[in-house]
Amino acid sequence: MELDESSFWLGLVMLASAVPTIVLSVPAGVLADRMATRRLLLISQVLSFGAHLTLAILVVTDVVELWIVIVWAIISGAFTALSTPAQNAILQRLIEMRVMASAVAYNSSIWNSMRIVGPALGGILIAAIGTGQAFFVTAGGFAISIALIASLQLAPHIRDAQGHGDRGLSEGFRYILSRPIFFATIGLSFFTSIFGTSYVVLLPIFADDLLSMSVRADSASWRRQPALGGCWERS
Questions:
Q1: Bridge partners (DSSP) listed for residue 222
Q2: Strand pairing partners for 223?
Q3: Which residue intervals of the chain are DSSP H helices?
Q4: Rounded to the nearest 5 degrees, what angle is found at the Cα of 2, between the Cα atoms of 64 and 20?
Q5: Fewer CB within 10 Å, N side or C side of the chain?
Q6: DSSP string spanning 90-135?
Q7: Cα(64)–Cα(55) distance, rounded to whole angstroms?
Q8: Do residues 230 and 3 lie in contact, with contact meaning Cβ atoms separated by under 8 Å?
Q9: Is the pTM of this model over 0.85?
Q10: Residue 20, Cβ neighbours under 10 Å: how many?
Q11: Domains (ranges, CATH) in the chain?
Q12: For 140-185, how does the pLDDT look when each residue is reduced to its tens digit (9 = 90+)?
C-alpha cells in the first residue's frame, strides 16, 4: 500500500507468496523424509530470518521497490513450503502419541488465533514504529525461533531407507487418490485456502477506503498524505 495503492499489485504479491508454498509443499515433504527434521527446520528458519531482515533494511533505507517485494514474497513462500512439513514431522517427536490429537487441536487453535491477533498487532506496530521497523520485529521473531529450535533435544529417529525420491512422491499421490476421504479433505482445504480467505488479502484496500472516508467525515484536522500510500496524519 505504501508503494502502490492498486489492489492488483496487492493481490499479486500475495499470489507470489502462495504459489511456491503450494507447488513446493509436496517436494518439501519428501525432503523432510530424507533429511534430519530439526536441521531442515533450522535451515528454513535461518533463511526466513535472512529474507525478512533484508527486506527490513531495504524498507528503512528507502530503496525498496515493488518488484523487490514480489521477489521477496516468492522466496518467503518457498521457505514456508520448506518449513511446514518439517514442523509437522517434528511434532510427533515432541509429543506422546496418546495426546497427539489434543496437541494438534491446540496447535491449530493457536494458528487460527494468531491469524486474528497477528494482523492487529502488525497494524499497531506499523502505526507506532513504521513498516521497516515492524519487519525488524518479525525478523526478531524468527531469531527467537532459531534459538528455540537449536536448543531442542530430540531422540534419534530411525528412517525407512525405502520410498525416497520420486518413488516416495508417487506413492504419496497414489495413497491420497486411493482414499476418497483424504482426497476430499485435502481438496476442501485447498479450495478454502484459495477462495474462502481471499478477502483477507484485500483488507488493506477496504481499510484504506472505509477508514479514510470515516476520518474525512469525522475531522477536518486530518489530511491525506499521498506519498505515504494514502495514510492519514494529523496536521
A1: 234
A2: 233
A3: 7-34, 37-60, 66-91, 100-129, 131-150, 165-177, 180-191, 203-218
A4: 65
A5: C
A6: HHTTTS-GGGHHHHHHHHHHHHHHHHHHHHHHHHHHHHHH-HHHHH
A7: 8
A8: no
A9: no
A10: 20
A11: 7-159 (1.20.1250.20), 199-235 (no CATH)
A12: 999 998 998 888 877 666 555 444 445 566 777 777 778 888 778 8
Sign of CA dihedral 76, 22, 84, 134: positive
The CA distances from residue 145 to 111, 159, 223, in Å, are 15, 26, 40
Q: Which residue has the cell 500475495?
A: 14
Question: What DSSP character marks residue 160?
Answer: -
pLDDT digits (tens, 9 = 90+) for 105-143: 887 788 778 877 887 888 888 888 888 888 999 999 999
Rounded-to-integer distance, Cα 11 and Cα 202, Å: 7
> Given a cut of 60, is residue 188 above it in pLDDT?
yes
> Is 84 within 8 Å of 30 (Cβ atoms)?
no
Residue whose C-alpha cell reads 508503494 in the numeric block: 3
| Residue carrying the nine cell digits 525478512 | 52
Specify whether the CB–CB gap between 1 and 57 falls below 8 A: no
CA–CA separation, 189 and 221 (whole Å):
46
Lookup result for grid cell 521477496: 72
